Amino acid sequence: MRIAVLGAGTMGHGIAQVAATAGHDVSLRDVDDNIVQDALDAIETNLDKGVDRGKVAPETRDAALDRATGTTDLESAVDGARLVVEAVPEDRDLKRDVLSDAEAAMAGDAVLASNTSSLPVTDLAAALDDPARFVGLHFFNPVYAMELVEVVVAEQTDEETLAFAREFVDSIDKTAIEVADSPGFASSRLGVALGVEAMRMVQEGVASPRDVDDAMELGYNHPMGPLELTDVVGLDVRLDILEHLREELGERFRPPQVLKRKVNAGNLGKKTGEGFYVWQDGEVVGVAE
Protein backbone atom coordinates (compact mmCIF):
# COMPACT_ATOMS: atom_id res chain seq x y z
CA MET A 1 0.00 0.00 0.00
CA ARG A 2 1.17 3.53 -0.75
CA ILE A 3 1.11 6.02 2.13
CA ALA A 4 1.77 9.74 2.24
CA VAL A 5 2.98 11.40 5.45
CA LEU A 6 2.62 15.19 5.55
CA GLY A 7 5.10 16.73 7.95
CA ALA A 8 8.66 15.44 8.28
CA GLY A 9 9.33 16.29 11.91
CA THR A 10 9.96 13.79 14.69
CA MET A 11 6.53 12.18 14.48
CA GLY A 12 6.26 12.37 10.70
CA HIS A 13 9.53 10.65 9.93
CA GLY A 14 8.83 8.15 12.70
CA ILE A 15 5.52 7.19 11.10
CA ALA A 16 7.19 7.00 7.69
CA GLN A 17 9.90 4.73 9.10
CA VAL A 18 7.56 2.19 10.68
CA ALA A 19 5.31 2.13 7.60
CA ALA A 20 8.25 1.58 5.23
CA THR A 21 9.74 -1.07 7.52
CA ALA A 22 6.38 -2.87 7.49
CA GLY A 23 6.45 -3.03 3.70
CA HIS A 24 4.46 0.03 2.65
CA ASP A 25 5.66 2.53 0.04
CA VAL A 26 5.92 5.91 1.75
CA SER A 27 6.19 9.46 0.47
CA LEU A 28 7.29 11.91 3.17
CA ARG A 29 6.46 15.54 2.44
CA ASP A 30 7.43 18.85 4.03
CA VAL A 31 7.73 22.43 2.82
CA ASP A 32 11.54 22.64 2.81
CA ASP A 33 14.05 20.39 1.05
CA ASN A 34 16.45 20.50 4.00
CA ILE A 35 13.74 19.36 6.42
CA VAL A 36 12.86 16.48 4.12
CA GLN A 37 16.47 15.40 3.75
CA ASP A 38 17.08 15.66 7.50
CA ALA A 39 14.05 13.41 8.03
CA LEU A 40 15.27 10.80 5.54
CA ASP A 41 18.72 10.92 7.19
CA ALA A 42 17.09 10.41 10.59
CA ILE A 43 15.22 7.35 9.30
CA GLU A 44 18.46 5.89 8.00
CA THR A 45 20.25 6.61 11.28
CA ASN A 46 17.48 4.98 13.31
CA LEU A 47 17.49 1.89 11.12
CA ASP A 48 21.27 1.67 11.26
CA LYS A 49 21.07 1.72 15.05
CA GLY A 50 18.48 -1.04 14.87
CA VAL A 51 20.86 -3.13 12.78
CA ASP A 52 23.74 -2.47 15.18
CA ARG A 53 21.58 -3.61 18.11
CA GLY A 54 20.42 -6.72 16.31
CA LYS A 55 16.79 -5.57 16.23
CA VAL A 56 16.60 -4.91 12.48
CA ALA A 57 17.95 -7.19 9.77
CA PRO A 58 20.23 -5.43 7.25
CA GLU A 59 17.99 -6.48 4.36
CA THR A 60 14.93 -5.07 6.19
CA ARG A 61 16.74 -1.75 6.63
CA ASP A 62 17.75 -1.62 2.98
CA ALA A 63 14.23 -2.44 1.77
CA ALA A 64 12.70 0.19 4.06
CA LEU A 65 15.08 2.86 2.82
CA ASP A 66 14.17 1.98 -0.76
CA ARG A 67 10.47 2.37 0.04
CA ALA A 68 10.77 5.77 1.77
CA THR A 69 11.05 8.83 -0.46
CA GLY A 70 10.79 12.55 0.24
CA THR A 71 9.34 15.54 -1.54
CA THR A 72 8.17 19.11 -1.06
CA ASP A 73 5.38 18.72 -3.63
CA LEU A 74 1.99 17.89 -2.13
CA GLU A 75 0.44 16.55 -5.32
CA SER A 76 3.23 14.07 -5.98
CA ALA A 77 3.28 13.05 -2.30
CA VAL A 78 -0.39 12.01 -2.24
CA ASP A 79 -0.52 10.65 -5.80
CA GLY A 80 -1.69 7.05 -5.59
CA ALA A 81 -1.76 7.05 -1.78
CA ARG A 82 -4.38 4.87 -0.11
CA LEU A 83 -3.71 6.60 3.21
CA VAL A 84 -2.60 10.18 3.87
CA VAL A 85 -1.40 10.94 7.40
CA GLU A 86 -1.06 14.56 8.51
CA ALA A 87 1.73 14.97 11.09
CA VAL A 88 2.36 18.73 11.25
CA PRO A 89 2.73 20.64 14.56
CA GLU A 90 -0.15 20.73 17.02
CA ASP A 91 -1.80 23.89 15.69
CA ARG A 92 -5.50 23.76 14.82
CA ASP A 93 -5.46 26.22 11.94
CA LEU A 94 -2.30 24.74 10.43
CA LYS A 95 -3.71 21.23 10.61
CA ARG A 96 -7.04 22.25 9.08
CA ASP A 97 -5.24 24.00 6.22
CA VAL A 98 -2.96 21.01 5.53
CA LEU A 99 -5.86 18.56 5.72
CA SER A 100 -8.00 20.63 3.35
CA ASP A 101 -5.14 20.92 0.85
CA ALA A 102 -4.46 17.20 1.10
CA GLU A 103 -8.10 16.28 0.54
CA ALA A 104 -8.21 18.43 -2.59
CA ALA A 105 -5.10 16.73 -4.00
CA MET A 106 -5.60 13.08 -3.05
CA ALA A 107 -7.75 10.38 -4.59
CA GLY A 108 -11.41 10.41 -3.63
CA ASP A 109 -11.33 6.94 -2.09
CA ALA A 110 -8.23 7.52 0.03
CA VAL A 111 -8.41 7.78 3.82
CA LEU A 112 -7.16 10.94 5.51
CA ALA A 113 -5.83 10.84 9.08
CA SER A 114 -4.39 13.25 11.62
CA ASN A 115 -1.67 12.40 14.12
CA THR A 116 -3.00 14.96 16.62
CA SER A 117 -2.36 14.17 20.27
CA SER A 118 -5.05 16.43 21.73
CA LEU A 119 -7.00 18.49 19.17
CA PRO A 120 -10.64 17.46 18.58
CA VAL A 121 -10.76 15.33 15.44
CA THR A 122 -14.45 16.17 14.95
CA ASP A 123 -13.46 19.82 14.61
CA LEU A 124 -10.64 18.97 12.19
CA ALA A 125 -13.06 16.84 10.16
CA ALA A 126 -15.47 19.76 9.86
CA ALA A 127 -13.02 21.51 7.52
CA LEU A 128 -13.28 18.67 4.98
CA ASP A 129 -15.66 18.05 2.11
CA ASP A 130 -15.89 14.33 2.91
CA PRO A 131 -15.30 14.00 6.67
CA ALA A 132 -16.53 10.39 6.71
CA ARG A 133 -13.13 9.38 5.28
CA PHE A 134 -11.25 11.05 8.14
CA VAL A 135 -9.94 9.56 11.39
CA GLY A 136 -7.40 10.28 14.10
CA LEU A 137 -4.26 8.14 14.29
CA HIS A 138 -2.33 9.15 17.40
CA PHE A 139 1.16 7.66 17.39
CA PHE A 140 3.62 7.90 20.27
CA ASN A 141 7.24 8.99 20.39
CA PRO A 142 9.53 7.29 19.48
CA VAL A 143 7.21 5.76 16.92
CA TYR A 144 9.49 2.80 16.09
CA ALA A 145 9.57 1.72 19.75
CA MET A 146 6.06 2.48 21.01
CA GLU A 147 3.45 -0.21 20.39
CA LEU A 148 0.28 1.83 20.89
CA VAL A 149 -1.71 3.81 18.33
CA GLU A 150 -4.94 5.53 19.39
CA VAL A 151 -7.59 5.35 16.68
CA VAL A 152 -9.68 8.43 17.43
CA VAL A 153 -13.20 8.35 15.99
CA ALA A 154 -14.67 11.68 14.89
CA GLU A 155 -18.44 12.05 14.89
CA GLN A 156 -18.26 12.00 11.07
CA THR A 157 -15.97 8.93 10.72
CA ASP A 158 -17.77 6.07 8.96
CA GLU A 159 -17.40 2.37 9.75
CA GLU A 160 -15.40 1.62 6.62
CA THR A 161 -12.82 4.24 7.50
CA LEU A 162 -12.60 2.99 11.08
CA ALA A 163 -12.07 -0.59 9.91
CA PHE A 164 -9.39 0.56 7.44
CA ALA A 165 -7.57 2.48 10.19
CA ARG A 166 -7.50 -0.53 12.48
CA GLU A 167 -6.24 -2.75 9.66
CA PHE A 168 -3.47 -0.28 8.88
CA VAL A 169 -2.33 -0.19 12.51
CA ASP A 170 -2.26 -3.98 12.54
CA SER A 171 -0.24 -4.00 9.30
CA ILE A 172 2.58 -2.00 10.93
CA ASP A 173 2.71 -4.33 13.94
CA LYS A 174 1.20 -1.83 16.37
CA THR A 175 -1.71 -2.24 18.77
CA ALA A 176 -4.79 -0.07 18.22
CA ILE A 177 -7.15 1.17 20.89
CA GLU A 178 -10.36 2.85 19.76
CA VAL A 179 -11.38 6.03 21.57
CA ALA A 180 -14.20 8.48 21.08
CA ASP A 181 -13.29 12.07 20.25
CA SER A 182 -12.91 13.77 23.63
CA PRO A 183 -10.37 16.25 25.02
CA GLY A 184 -6.99 14.55 25.37
CA PHE A 185 -8.43 11.24 24.19
CA ALA A 186 -7.31 8.52 26.62
CA SER A 187 -3.52 8.60 26.61
CA SER A 188 -2.79 12.33 26.54
CA ARG A 189 -5.34 13.05 29.24
CA LEU A 190 -3.98 10.40 31.59
CA GLY A 191 -0.35 11.03 30.71
CA VAL A 192 -0.38 14.79 31.27
CA ALA A 193 -2.42 14.39 34.47
CA LEU A 194 0.45 12.38 35.93
CA GLY A 195 3.05 14.66 34.39
CA VAL A 196 1.50 17.88 35.65
CA GLU A 197 1.33 16.56 39.21
CA ALA A 198 4.99 15.51 39.01
CA MET A 199 5.90 19.04 37.87
CA ARG A 200 3.96 20.55 40.76
CA MET A 201 5.83 18.31 43.21
CA VAL A 202 9.16 19.56 41.85
CA GLN A 203 7.92 23.16 41.89
CA GLU A 204 6.82 22.81 45.53
CA GLY A 205 10.10 21.20 46.60
CA VAL A 206 8.49 17.87 47.52
CA ALA A 207 11.17 15.88 45.69
CA SER A 208 13.76 16.22 42.94
CA PRO A 209 12.93 15.26 39.34
CA ARG A 210 15.05 12.11 39.67
CA ASP A 211 13.34 11.03 42.89
CA VAL A 212 9.87 11.69 41.48
CA ASP A 213 10.71 9.60 38.43
CA ASP A 214 12.30 6.84 40.52
CA ALA A 215 9.09 6.67 42.56
CA MET A 216 7.08 5.82 39.44
CA GLU A 217 9.71 3.62 37.80
CA LEU A 218 10.57 1.57 40.89
CA GLY A 219 7.30 1.84 42.80
CA TYR A 220 4.85 1.43 39.92
CA ASN A 221 7.04 -0.30 37.34
CA HIS A 222 6.74 2.52 34.79
CA PRO A 223 9.46 2.14 32.12
CA MET A 224 10.14 5.89 32.31
CA GLY A 225 9.21 8.49 34.90
CA PRO A 226 6.77 11.32 34.05
CA LEU A 227 9.40 14.06 34.02
CA GLU A 228 11.89 12.23 31.85
CA LEU A 229 9.00 11.35 29.55
CA THR A 230 8.06 15.05 29.42
CA ASP A 231 11.62 15.79 28.29
CA VAL A 232 11.36 13.14 25.57
CA VAL A 233 7.96 14.34 24.34
CA GLY A 234 8.98 18.01 24.51
CA LEU A 235 8.08 20.55 27.17
CA ASP A 236 6.52 22.80 24.54
CA VAL A 237 4.29 19.95 23.36
CA ARG A 238 3.20 19.20 26.93
CA LEU A 239 2.48 22.90 27.52
CA ASP A 240 0.29 23.12 24.42
CA ILE A 241 -1.65 20.02 25.47
CA LEU A 242 -2.16 21.30 29.00
CA GLU A 243 -3.40 24.67 27.80
CA HIS A 244 -5.88 22.97 25.50
CA LEU A 245 -7.10 20.61 28.24
CA ARG A 246 -7.44 23.47 30.68
CA GLU A 247 -9.76 25.24 28.25
CA GLU A 248 -11.81 22.09 27.73
CA LEU A 249 -11.75 20.39 31.13
CA GLY A 250 -10.88 22.98 33.75
CA GLU A 251 -8.24 24.20 36.16
CA ARG A 252 -6.89 20.79 37.14
CA PHE A 253 -4.89 20.98 33.91
CA ARG A 254 -3.46 24.46 34.57
CA PRO A 255 0.21 24.39 33.43
CA PRO A 256 2.65 24.79 36.36
CA GLN A 257 4.92 27.83 36.38
CA VAL A 258 8.03 25.64 36.29
CA LEU A 259 6.91 24.30 32.91
CA LYS A 260 6.16 27.77 31.54
CA ARG A 261 9.54 29.11 32.71
CA LYS A 262 11.47 26.33 31.05
CA VAL A 263 9.58 26.69 27.77
CA ASN A 264 10.05 30.48 27.79
CA ALA A 265 13.78 29.91 28.33
CA GLY A 266 13.93 27.58 25.34
CA ASN A 267 14.62 24.51 27.48
CA LEU A 268 12.30 22.07 25.75
CA GLY A 269 13.78 18.77 26.84
CA LYS A 270 15.78 16.16 24.98
CA LYS A 271 15.59 17.98 21.63
CA THR A 272 17.30 21.10 23.02
CA GLY A 273 19.63 19.36 25.47
CA GLU A 274 17.88 20.53 28.63
CA GLY A 275 14.46 20.32 30.24
CA PHE A 276 13.97 18.78 33.66
CA TYR A 277 17.19 16.92 32.88
CA VAL A 278 20.39 17.67 30.98
CA TRP A 279 20.84 15.54 27.85
CA GLN A 280 23.88 14.63 25.76
CA ASP A 281 23.82 12.35 22.74
CA GLY A 282 20.26 11.35 23.54
CA GLU A 283 21.04 10.28 27.13
CA VAL A 284 20.37 11.89 30.52
CA VAL A 285 23.61 13.12 32.10
CA GLY A 286 22.25 15.18 34.96
CA VAL A 287 19.37 17.08 36.50
CA ALA A 288 18.77 20.63 35.26
CA GLU A 289 18.98 23.52 37.70
From TrEMBL:
The keyword Cell inner membrane does not apply. Gene3D superfamilies: N-(1-d-carboxylethyl)-l-norvaline Dehydrogenase, domain 2 (1.10.1040.10), NAD(P)-binding Rossmann-like Domain (3.40.50.720). It holds the Pfam family 3HCDH. GO terms for biological process: fatty acid metabolic process. NAD(+) binds at G7, A8, G9, T10, M11, G12, D30, E90, K95, S117, N141, K271. InterPro entries: 3-OHacyl-CoA_DH, 3-OHacyl-CoA_DH_NAD-bd, 3HC_DH_C, 6-PGluconate_DH-like_C_sf, 6PGD_dom2, NAD(P)-bd_dom_sf. Residues 184-279 form the 3-hydroxyacyl-CoA dehydrogenase C-terminal domain. The keyword NAD applies. The record marks H138 as: Important for catalytic activity. This is 3-hydroxybutyryl-CoA dehydrogenase. It comes from Halobacterium bonnevillei.
